[in-house]
UniProtKB/TrEMBL annotation:
Keyword Hydrolase in record: no
UniProt region (Disordered), positions on chain: 354-375
Annotated keywords: Transferase
Classification via PANTHER family: GLYCOSYLTRANSFERASE, UDP-N-ACETYLGLUCOSAMINE--N-ACETYLMURAMYL-(PENTAPEPTIDE) PYROPHOSPHORYL-UNDECAPRENOL N-ACETYLGLUCOSAMINE TRANSFERASE 1
Domain Glycosyl transferase family 28 C-terminal, chain residue ranges per copy: 619-714
InterPro entries documented for this protein: Glyco_trans_28_C
Stretches of the chain forming a coiled coil according to its record: none
A molecular function GO annotation: hexosyltransferase activity
Compositional bias (Pro residues): 364-374
Domain of life, source organism: Bacteria
A Pfam family of this chain: Glyco_tran_28_C
Protein name: Glycosyl transferases group 1
Gene3D superfamilies: Glycogen Phosphorylase B
């Protein structure tokens, strides 16, 4: 057991992405400037899902040496303990951190509920009982100080002994202020930023458009949560520019607008208004609701949504008044919410700034400790199915402990990776965000750079075509080894532009292809220096369930043959039309028929007589319980069926952008290891299925596919990436 001594200990859940982490970061930086030592004590909140990483703002503090993270087994001594976020204590803590502090402040930075439900978020009495049990009284015998963050929170709390002063937010104005020489555009630009939450927006479309007008002579910029507004409106107004959360840094965003406008659901009890504070510090006039007046006094402009447009036009026409409003707001924020106010309240609680002679050396950016594992960050594209993601998980589960995998994916299958035990980051695809190509490239670059800075990987493995955002991120972070995991068998005369961008990577890893002899795509001519392995599959033979276990898991009877239909994710083209014919044919032949529904299918499979839908990942674990599989000839399912000796009929998907499923399926049929139906709308389907249901045909297919001896290259791929990661660490990159 170890003991540490600090000036300020801050206890919270450091995974919150919004105001909680921003407020903590501001306080820690002010404390570091004053020579105070800060320790962060992480306690998971029961309403935050597992697997979330620390907020980037918190990760930056730890990386830069501005704060230390308390070890789970440490006894932490501090002059002052500050606890933030009451929702942490809505359930008993599994592990109570051991903290000895001279004074303890519980910061109430969220109301217990809202107008509709006063206890929606927490019960104050229950939270108070737990906090006092765990952390009071202090070593000097003092009880816990309960400090609301603002007047609205104070008025929302039940009658209880509360601190005479609010523990308000703080901000370093010097880091935000920009001297404005004029408007940012030829028309007024209104804006707002914040995390995506429906209660952060007006409740009705009418109120929303009053606050953020759709006018030809006005523009609106939204950073974060814009999808909520456009969903409420049912459209994206022509004058709106919607940027995803994290797509721009707030200071840069605020420099791109003339007015900050913030209105929310009337039931919400807004704790403080951090984004308003930031706008005022940046010199942007804030137009907000009257209920914020106790916090921002006369420094803000107060209105209803209907009054926004007239007020904007008034200030737009009077630049001198605009300048006075901006300057008054800055001065107000500096005097009331500046860092000096924070240091004064620390001093009043026994944690004042130390004399210069007794301060610890100024914190400097510290290199990561040598023994710390350097992960492999694995980025997958937004495929129609789970192919990209499954290949990376196949490699990731075989990486050594010294270089664990972190999965970042644009696929809806992010939840699948999380359930498989991977630390998972979700990056919405361009289609999901509805962004033009150039803006999405900027978003993707920003998010990748953030993930590299946060997780500090030694290698980034990309199973995706090299989008501009990926290339830009690789260029911006050259100290990391970037590897392109490039599946072969592209369609002829496609993708040459992608091939040309391969030079942005430090190396190319190519999974093997059974049908390589039929590959006429552009990757064939670009194999110089490529590291090639056997086909990559998620599971090995030893991972498969036995026939009886597999049948039991799939709910199949032992006395009848069983067939599985897996024609794709249903996200590329219409897979419903041939499914009915195939299912009817197999049912008539006496088969039990299962329909495999992808874990990320956007439309459910239609119900078919005599069939049953299964939604299992990975379905390959149960292939030994099946007598026949009718499948699309995508890379993963194709190689799994042949490697595991499963009789298969391939129905290639012709609508893929790169993957040549037709050539792959033709080659398998020519090699005698599977059957192929190229046109399921023709009578070819019935002819091939009539052959496939014959036991002697299935036995021959199983024997020939097993004899092909297809190995699994996932372990070799993992070994190679781990070697690259180790080399990166050795060279200090």
């Amino acid at each position: 057991m170890t003991t540490t001594a600090h000036d300020v200990a801050i206890l919270s859940d450091f995974r919150y992405p919004g105001g909680n982490s921003t407020a903590i970061a501001a306080e820690v930086r002010a404390q570091a400037e004053a020579g105070l030592r800060t320790v962060l004590v992480h306690v998971p909140s029961p309403h935050n899902r597992d697997g979330l990483p620390f907020s980037p703002r918190i990760a930056d503090l730890l990386r830069d040496g501005l704060a230390e993270l308390a070890a789970p087994d440490a006894v932490t001594h501090a002059r002052l303990l500050v606890i933030r976020q009451p929702r942490i204590f809505t359930a008993d803590l599994a592990v109570v951190p051991r903290i000895r502090a001279g004074h303890t402040v519980m910061v109430l930075n969220q109301a217990p509920g809202d107008a509709a439900d006063p206890r929606r978020y927490y019960d104050f009495d229950e939270v108070r009982d737990r906090v006092e049990l765990y952390f009071g009284p202090g070593i000097e015998g003092a009880g816990i100080e309960w400090a609301p963050i603002s007047p609205p929170i104070r008025s929302a709390l039940p009658v209880a002994p509360l601190s005479a002063e609010d523990w308000h937010e703080i901000i370093d104005v010097a880091q935000w202020w920009t001297e404005r020489t004029g408007p940012v555009a030829d028309v007024p630009v209104l804006g707002r930023h914040g995390r995506a939450d429906p209660v952060k927006w007006p409740r009705t479309a009418d109120e929303l458009l009053r606050a953020y007008p759709d006018r030809a002579d006005l523009r609106v910029r939204v950073l974060g949560g814009g999808e909520i507004a456009t969903r409420l409106l049912g459209r994206l107004p022509a004058g709106w520019d919607v940027v995803p959360f994290g797509g721009e840094q707030p200071p840069d965003f605020l420099r791109s607008i003339d007015f900050f406008v913030y209105f929310h659901d009337p039931d919400l009890v807004e704790a403080f208004g951090r984004t308003i504070l930031e706008a005022m510090a940046a010199g942007v006039p804030a137009i907000i609701g009257e209920h914020f007046r106790p916090i921002f006094g006369d420094a803000a402009l107060y209105s209803t949504p209907a009054g926004v447009e007239p007020l904007v036009r008034e200030l737009w026409a009077d630049r001198e008044r605009y300048r006075r409003v901006a300057t008054r707001a800055r001065d107000f924020v500096e005097s009331r919410y500046g860092t000096a106010a924070h240091l004064a309240r620390l001093a009043a609680r026994g944690a004042g700034a130390r004399p210069a002679a007794h301060r610890a050396p100024a914190p400097a950016r510290r290199p990561a400790p040598v023994p710390r594992p350097r992960p492999v960050l694995m980025l997958s594209d937004n495929g129609a199915g789970l192919g990209h993601l499954s290949r990376l998980m196949a490699i990731g589960r075989r990486l050594p402990e010294g270089h664990p995998a972190v999965i970042a994916t644009q696929s809806y299958g992010a939840s699948v990776a999380h359930e498989e035990g991977f630390l998972t980051e979700y990056l919405p695809s361009r289609t999901v965000l509805g962004l033009p190509r150039q803006r999405w490239a900027g978003f993707l670059r920003s998010r990748l750079e953030h993930l590299v800075d946060l997780h500090r990987p030694a290698v980034v493995a990309v199973d995706s075509v090299p989008h501009d955002g990926i290339v830009a991120a690789a260029t911006a972070r050259p100290d990391v080894t970037w590897i392109w995991v490039r599946r072969p068998m592209w369609r002829r005369d496609t993708g040459t532009d992608w091939i040309a961008k391969g030079s942005a990577f430090d190396g190319i890893l190519e999974p093997g292809e059974f049908a390589a002899a039929a590959d006429e795509g552009p990757t064939v001519a670009d194999r110089a220096g490529v590291h090639r392995v056997d086909p990559i599959m998620l599971l090995d033979h030893a991972d498969l369930a036995g026939p009886a276990e597999a049948r039991a898991a799939l709910g199949l009877a032992e006395d009848r043959p069983a067939a599985l239909l897996q024609l794709g994710a249903g996200n590329i083209n219409d897979i419903a039309s041939p499914v009915g014919r195939i299912a009817a044919h197999l049912c008539e032949a006496g088969f039990q028929v299962l329909l495999a529904e992808s874990m990320i299918a956007t439309e459910p499979l239609p119900p078919l007589p005599g069939t049953r839908v299964v939604k299992v990942y990975p379905i390959s674990r149960y292939l030994r319980g099946l007598d026949l599989v009718v499948s699309a000839s995508g890379y993963n399912s194709f190689h799994e069926l042949l490697a595991f000796g499963v009789p298969a009929v391939f129905v290639p998907n012709r609508e893929t952008s790169l993957d040549d499923q037709v050539a792959r399926a033709r080659f398998a049929a020519a090699a005698g290891v599977a059957l192929c139906v190229e046109d399921p709308a023709s009578d070819e389907l019935d002819r091939v299925l009539a052959e496939a249901v014959r036991p002697e045909v299935r036995e021959r297919l199983a024997r020939r596919s097993a004899a092909a001896g297809i190995g699994n290259g996932a372990r070799e791929a993992a070994r190679w990436l781990a070697e690259l990661a180790a080399e990166n660490v050795r060279t200090g990159a």
